[in-house]
Specification:
The protein is an alpha+beta fold. The protein contains 16 helices and 23 strands.
Length: 572
């Protein structure tokens, strides 16, 4: 274990004379390297010197230092990882286990410094002012905390100190301190891939786009203006841009949650099982988010309080990059309860309370087009949250891109406020070969790979998105009717034009009939066959796509399925 080269920031600990002290931006981050594989190996009693890796969907999510010395890297497929390191121990991912085993680390730090916040298992942060002032400087505080974690948690850690949580976390990975006011300078030479470290926020597509544009460092990205970033890359990129500039991504003024927003329950009889406590936590999470919605608020830091039968008070604070959803709250509470009840010694729980330690106006982190949230956006966000409070979460939905071949399959609706993760879930797996398909406008034959379906959520960082052979190429139709509109495709002599072969029509399209007067066809492209889930009894069956341009400039996407043509989309 190594002591980072921290800086002595005397001003960080000064309290000043008469006036009110300004908020201290200095943050201390404690990072346990390779925590998912460390926790998994510890739970499976794998010796520390054995190469080990945690795999999900046959991809390496995390690997030990020993495995890296054998050439194993994140994102490798299982076969390649085992080819590089035949003695590799393969372990399964388990977020609950990771959180439970990280609790001793958090408890060890908390014994010396208050205000510990678990960002995720393996990383926690706390204000630097307290420990730095108590131990007489940043270097002394870091050395004392490293020894504390090693002694009481039995694991190594690295600590970083910087202005802001993002810079502090990256400094911890490098075991160093960043002088006050120089976080932007520290971040500038780092790779833009550092923006995609947080598993709760998927920025893989943004990082890939920045690289292709030649913006390979955080400094290059930070040099762009915020308005240019918002207009060219989207709203999520604005938050990433602020991180690259060394700024706090959250709004500077946070509302103090009213006392009545806390949700508490007395557990009678006392609870000593995680499943029973988690059941109570689910009801509490619903109450908490209903109360927050009634005030137009969203929670970004959650306090989990518990009292044992012996009178011991337990507290842990969880921080989130985005406002917590009810399901996200339940997950974090369950992980924390698993830590307390699974470690032994905490006894049975007699009371549980959830407290929103930090809140923002609902929708405040969903920045506007130019990077800021206007008053109208805030009012709209509060109104939508209030509608959900009255009618339920499903009453207000928002569209999120997802994977699929047809335009209607490539958008899913999620409740407003839920995590808007872009999913590109692979097609359902079937043993054996899959029927060939054509790749969109190119007409080139493609073959679908046999794939394994993944659970919803983001993929491993290095896992490429599903290819969806035969999917419609960009641009997608601007309008997709909820129900296909039947039409007839006619030749010049009035005969109906139909597919004569997978990639051949039996006539030349000249008119589209249906839903009003016949419309003249001035151009067309295709046809392209689509073979989607042809083996499934409930599958859509074979289909043929055709794009046509009408005399009035309208472009249509037509699909021939079940013996008839349908309008599947309208282009702008």
């Amino acid at each position: 274990m190594s002591t980072p080269g921290t800086t002595e920031a005397g001003g960080a600990t000064g309290t000043g004379g008469g006036g009110r002290a300004e908020p201290d931006p200095r943050v201390l981050a404690v990072w346990s390297p390779d925590w998912p594989v460390t926790a998994a190996a510890r739970a499976a009693h794998v010796p520390a010197d054995r190469p080990a890796a945690v795999l999900h969907a046959n991809r390496v999510l995390a690997c030990s230092a020993t495995a890296r010395r054998h050439g194993v890297r994140r994102g490798l497929r299982r076969r390649e990882a085992q080819a590089r390191c035949p003695e590799l121990v393969v372990l399964a991912p388990d977020p609950g286990r990771d959180a439970r085993l990280f609790e001793p680390v958090a408890a060890a730090v908390e014994a010396l410094a208050p205000g510990v916040e678990v960002v995720r298992p393996g990383l926690l942060v706390l204000p630097a002012r307290g420990p730095v002032g108590w131990f007489g400087g940043e270097r002394a505080a870091v050395e004392r905390l490293i020894d504390q974690v090693a002694l009481h948690a039995g694991t190594e850690c690295q600590i970083g100190v910087a202005d802001g949580m993002f810079a502090a976390a990256l400094a911890a990975r490098r075991g160093r301190g960043v002088p006050p006011g120089r976080s932007a300078e520290f971040l500038a030479p780092l790779e833009v891939a550092e923006l995609d470290r947080d598993p709760d926020v998927d920025r893989a597509a943004l990082v890939d786009l920045l690289r292709r544009l030649g913006l390979r460092s955080l400094g290059a990205f930070a040099s762009l203006s915020e308005s240019d970033v918002a207009s060219r890359f989207g709203t999520d990129a604005v938050a990433a841009h602020r991180l690259a500039r060394g700024l706090d991504p959250r709004p500077p003024a946070r509302r103090v949650p009213p006392e009545e927003l806390s949700a508490a329950v007395e557990l009678d009889p006392p609870v000593d099982r995680v499943d029973a406590a988690a059941f109570a936590a689910r009801a509490l999470a619903t109450r908490l988010h209903t109360a927050l919605a009634g005030h137009g608020l969203a929670c970004t830091r959650l306090g989990v309080h518990a009292r044992t039968e012996s009178g011991e008070e337990l507290l842990r604070v969880w921080r989130c990059a985005e406002p917590l959803t009810p399901s996200g709250t339940v997950d974090r509470v369950r992980w924390q309860l698993d830590s307390w009840l699974g470690r032994g010694g905490s006894g049975t729980l007699v009371a549980l309370r959830l407290t929103p330690e930090d809140t923002v106006v609902a929708g405040a982190l969903q920045r506007g087009l130019w990077g800021d949230v206007g008053e109208g956006d805030e009012r709209a966000g509060r109104a939508l949250v209030r509608v959900q409070a009255l009618l339920g979460p499903e009453a207000v939905l928002t569209a999120v891109p997802t994977g699929g071949r047809d335009p209607g399959e490539r958008v899913r609706l999620v409740p407003w406020g839920d995590e808007r993760v872009v999913e590109d879930t692979a097609v359902p797996a079937r043993p054996g070969p899959v029927a060939p398909a054509r790749d969109g406008a190119t007409g080139a034959p493609g073959h679908a790979e046999q794939v394994t379906p993944e659970p919803p959520g983001r993929r491993p960082p290095a896992d490429p998105p599903a290819t969806w052979p035969g999917r419609l190429p960009a641009p997608s139709p601007a309008t997709v009717p909820p129900d296909p509109v039947p039409v007839r495709l006619l030749a010049a002599d009035g005969a109906e034009v139909c597919p004569a072969a997978p990639d051949l029509l039996d006539g030349v399209p000249r008119r589209v009939a249906g839903g009003g007067p016949d419309r003249e066809v001035t151009g067309w492209a295709g046809p392209w066959p689509v073979h989607a889930r042809w083996w499934a009894p409930d599958g859509p069956g074979p289909a043929v796509r055709l794009q046509v341009v009408l005399a009035d400039g309208t472009a249509l996407l037509l699909v021939h399925r079940g013996g008839r043509w349908e309008v599947a989309g309208v282009y702008d």
